[in-house]
Specification:
Number of helices: 13
Strand order of the largest sheet: 2-1-8-7-5-4
Radius of gyration: 49 Å
Largest sheet: 6 strands, mixed
Shape: elongated
CATH class of one domain: Alpha Beta
CATH architecture of one domain: Roll
Helix content: 40-55%
Oligomer: single chain
Strand content: 5-15%
Distance between the termini: 144 Å
Number of strands: 10
CATH topology of one domain: Nuclear Transport Factor 2, Chain: A
Length: 558
């Protein structure tokens, strides 16, 4: 190993033979790399010393130049002609010095460029060596993976030979590169519940094309398990294999008779019961045929599969997430039905004679069997499960209140209902106060304004205004009835005879002798604001027919 150290005179360093020799092993390569770094640092120190030495020389030259200028100035004052000659010489010397400095700067720049090029070459060589090492490691890993794959295949073949019946669903798709694109589905009959992707230890970021579609096809194959469909444990394992603990199934149903739509959302805890109920209602198989599938890859390990049309005539969207076991599982499934068709087997159609027929051979008419599905396209029991899931989701507030307060379900429901009734009563009281202000303005109007045209004449827009008043009276009656119902419900929930809010006072107290001594919370108004308002409106505003009768009666008396 030979190295060259640059001298102080600024000689260029000779190339070292460090790069020409390859280390025999990792330790030798590390030692050689450390020596090369040490030599490179020494060169840098020498270059820094040279720069410092040059700077010192320049500083001395500048000092000498200043001293010479001072001397020339003194001589110029004494001898004008001699000073001019000396000045010319000084200018020439200064030009020469500047040229020398520029040449030195150029040389320094060239040296720096050469050093940078050497550093880049050194880095490139290191990168090439690292890439070579990585390639070797990858080749070794691929060989190990191929060996493991062969061992797994041999084990599976041996197990299949030993067992009389093979597992029902174990579809594996292996790519030519050795990486598995689809994980193995776990079933009850298979003894090994593991995936090829997990055994090989490959990451899902490199190869994700088509994995979600294949997983969805496996899901569709397992929807018709045959004799195992009546076993609830099969569907529990099915949901555990294909769904995450937080997954949901969103179903949009269409009523073919009324074109009404309903959307239901089923949690993971009810999925096994939902699928099992279909087969318990007499369904023989559930088939899912996908067309025009589109796969979308999103950041965060999420893959979406969308199908614009399914056999059940609807739009399907499935979102997959990679689980900790290395298996793609369904996080969210959304199916929006656009209609359904029901097919009847010919053998199930019966023919019966038409009654009250006068012919010797009465004609036959066909009798169709009862449909196992309802107007939403589902069995009635499966539809009830969807309704239960919808109600359970809406009653989450009651469950939360029961857990926090420790009360029972009925008490929690009563407390929430009472709270909401109080809010409604406050809204109704606000509307009553507004209606009272309108009554006051209406009563003050005859004193401040001209008489109304309804009272003055019998022509004009009288019927429209009368209908508007009738609408107001109907609305007020409905509000009063609603308020009474709310108060009765509040009394039932509280089980007391007191009003729900202590600040409720009688707005219209009665003129009795014990009025001053009575409690403000127990005194009851004789007439409510709503009834008083209705009476005032009925007394102030009369119908045109009633006015006409009163006017004619007065005239006849006269």
């Amino acid at each position: 190993m030979s190295t060259a150290i640059p001298s102080a005179a600024g000689t260029t360093p000779q190339p070292s033979a460090l790069h020409s020799q390859m280390p025999p092993g990792p330790q030798g390569y590390a030692n050689a790399q450390a020596q090369a770094q040490h030599i490179f640092r020494q060169k840098q120190l020498m270059a820094m010393k040279q720069q410092q030495f040059m700077q010192q020389q320049q500083h001395l030259q500048q000092q000498q130049h200043l001293q010479q200028q001072q001397q020339l100035q003194q001589q110029y004052l004494n001898q004008p002609q001699a000073q001019l000659m000396i000045r010319k010489q000084q200018m020439q010397q200064m030009q020469q010095i500047q040229q020398m400095q520029q040449m030195q700067l150029l040389r320094n720049q060239e040296q720096q460029m050469q050093q940078q090029q050497q550093q880049q070459l050194h880095q490139e060589q290191q990168q090439q060596q690292q890439q070579h090492m990585l390639l070797q490691q990858q080749q070794q890993q691929q060989q190990q993976q191929q060996q493991q794959q062969q061992q797994l295949l041999l084990q599976q073949q041996q197990l299949q030979r030993q067992q009389p019946q093979p597992p029902q669903a174990s579809s594996v798709a292996i790519r030519p590169g050795g990486a598995s694109a689809t994980p193995v589905i776990k079933s009850e009959d298979s003894p090994t519940a593991m995936t090829i992707s997990k055994a090989m230890g490959l990451s899902s970021g490199n190869q994700t094309s088509g994995q979600a579609v294949l997983r969805l096809l496996q899901f569709a194959e397992q929807l018709s398990p045959g004799e195992q469909a009546a076993d609830r444990s099969f569907w529990d394992n099915f949901v555990q294999d294909f769904y995450t603990p937080s997954s949901t199934l969103k179903l949009g149903l269409l009523n073919m008779e009324t074109n009404e739509r309903e959307v239901f959302e089923v949690n993971q805890s009810l999925l096994a019961r939902y699928f099992h109920t279909h087969y318990m209602c007499g369904i023989s198989s559930i088939q899912m045929t996908l067309e025009k599938t589109a796969e979308y890859i999103f950041p965060g390990g999420i893959m979406n599969v969308e199908c614009p049309r399914v056999v059940a005539t609807g739009h399907l969207m499935v979102q997959f997430v990679m689980s900790s076991e290395g298996v793609w599982k369904i996080e969210h499934m959304d199916f929006s039905s656009q209609g359904f068709e029901e097919y009847i087997n010919r053998a199930s159609i019966r023919s019966e004679p038409i009654p009250n027929s006068k012919k010797k051979t009465p004609p036959q008419h066909s009798v169709f069997p009862d449909s196992p599905i309802n107007k939403w396209g589902l069995p009635s029991r499966a539809y009830h499960i969807l309704q239960m899931s919808d109600v359970a989701e809406r009653f989450g507030e009651v469950v939360f209140h029961s857990i926090v307060t420790g009360l029972g379900p009925q008490e929690s429901l009563g407390a929430i209902a009472f709270h909401k009734q109080q809010e409604l009563s406050k809204d109704v009281e606000g509307e009553d106060s507004k209606s009272q202000m309108m009554d006051a303005v209406y009563n003050m109007a005859p004193y401040n304004m001209a008489p109304s045209p309804i009272v003055k004449t019998q022509t004009g827009a009288r019927p429209q205004q009368q209908s508007f008043i009738q609408q107001q009276q109907q609305q007020q009656q409905q509000q009063a009835a609603l308020r009474q119902q709310q108060m009765q419900a509040a009394v039932l929930h509280q089980q007391f005879q007191q009003p729900p809010t202590p600040h409720y006072q009688s707005a219209y107290p009665t003129n009795t002798s014990n009025n001053n001594n009575s409690n403000q919370f127990t005194s009851t108004p004789t007439t409510s604001p709503m009834t008083r308002k209705r009476n005032s409106i009925a007394s102030d505003v009369k119908s045109p027919v009633a006015r006409k009768r009163t006017n004619t009666g007065n005239n006849t008396r006269k």
